Amino acid sequence: MTRTLQVELGDRSYPIAIGPDVLAHIDTRGQRCLVVSNDTIAPLHLQTLLAQLPDETATCILPDGEAHKTLESAAVILDALADGGFHRDALIIALGGGVIGDLAGFAAAVYHRGIDFIQIPTTLLSMVDSSVGGKTGVNHPAGKNLIGAFHQPRQVLADLSLLATLPDREYAAGLAEVVKYAALGDLDFLAWLEVRVAALRARDHAVLSETVERCCAAKARIVAADEREQGQRALLNLGHTFGHAIETASGYGTVLHGEAVAIGMVMAADLSHRLGWTSQHDVTRLSKLLQALDLPTRSPDIPVDQFIALMQRDKKVLNNRLRLVLLKPLGQALITSDVPPEPLRETLLAAT
Ligand SMILES: NC(=O)c1ccc[n+]([C@@H]2O[C@H](COP(=O)([O-])OP(=O)(O)OC[C@H]3O[C@@H](n4cnc5c(N)ncnc54)[C@H](O)[C@@H]3O)[C@@H](O)[C@H]2O)c1
Ligand SMILES: O=C(O)C(=O)C[C@@H](O)[C@H](O)[C@H](O)COP(=O)(O)O
Ligand SMILES: [Zn+2]
């Protein structure tokens, strides 16, 4: 069964199709296509996609890894477009996880000042989060996603059968962003996940497809209300100010994005508890769910001053003040710039 949702953004609205055989619904409108993927995914899934596309479709295969989510990789895509004589009516198709989706989307945002693109997510994380919402970009040694653009895809096609080849660690990383939606705004969903841990770990198809639909619906609602993160979209950043600092400090790709988000959410919950906003019971509840889903909840050892300096590079910083997404209580996230330094230091010291 195919589930279809819509991201409502006026004349830039687009559908998200979830289910088996959704690749057959790719909407290329006769445009010249460039498929962007990487050297892990292409041998597994590129031929299946190409079977749905015109014979003259070009490909750009990048090296795999978060360490390659760079301006240099974006330039490789832009070179493929320019050298291939692609015009403004070209279409980029991203076949991959969040790294490929963010890179290909960024190239689509800037080539000829913006061309069309389609997201075909191949990881759980990209199905529930990164393929939806139009945040595109690359990392910088100073911080995650420091360079980027908002550029919405034309279509998102989430074919759950592609997940059959996804390694367990990557699958678990995707579950962290699933738990994020529950923790930030949906306690019923949190309880629903808690009683389905075994099914989630077993990649039960029915549970997975409902999970992807619930997450995409939540993200679509938030993005439709606040496309450019002027307000409530920042709640999708729960755990990310801590998490991005962990990813940068450890070297991109050492701690996976989803793993860093899992650790970061527990840190956000811990700080919320220190501020009197969340009970210890709920901090433990969140932590236990993440652990049951095979996710880490303790931070690598990063000196506190370095951790704070990295957090200060976060894109939510305003007037030099940190703005953090915290829980008041679990299931109800808020963004605050009122973060006293002492409890924050205590959270950082307690996190390892
Ligand atoms: N734009 C957004 O809104 C948004 C949201 C969340 C995360 N992100 C970004 O997404 C990135 C993380 O994405 P990710 O977790 O998908 O990681 P990823 O793109 O690095 O993919 C994870 C790994 O799995 C491999 N892989 C992907 N699909 C596979 C498949 N079907 N079978 C076998 N192997 C497969 C990849 O080659 C890679 O090695 C981070 O850069 C993060 O910042 C962006
Ligand atoms: O779509 C959003 O908005 C998110 O914040 C989703 C996050 O899961 C994602 O990791 C995003 O890339 C983080 O955004 P950033 O603006 O902090 O780089
Ligand atoms: Zn994320």
UniProtKB/TrEMBL annotation:
EC number(s) stated in the UniProt entry for this protein: 4.2.3.4
Annotated 3-dehydroquinate synthase N-terminal domain residues: 60-172
Binding site for Zn(2+): E177, H240, H257
Catalytic reaction annotation: 7-phospho-2-dehydro-3-deoxy-D-arabino-heptonate = 3-dehydroquinate + phosphate
GO BP annotations listed: amino acid biosynthetic process; aromatic amino acid family biosynthetic process; chorismate biosynthetic process
Binding residues annotated for NAD(+), in chain numbering: 64-69, 98-102, 122-123, 135, 144
Zinc recorded as keyword: yes
Cellular component, GO annotation: cytoplasm
Cofactor(s) listed in the protein's UniProt record: NAD(+); Co(2+); Zn(2+)
InterPro entries named among the record's database cross-references: Dehydroquinate_synthase, DHQ_synth_AroB, DHQ_synth_fam, DHQS/DOIS_N, DHQS_C
Pathway: Metabolic intermediate biosynthesis; chorismate biosynthesis; chorismate from D-erythrose 4-phosphate and phosphoenolpyruvate: step 2/7
Assigned protein family: Belongs to the sugar phosphate cyclases superfamily. Dehydroquinate synthase family.
Name of the protein in question: 3-dehydroquinate synthase
Source organism (scientific name): Abyssibacter profundi
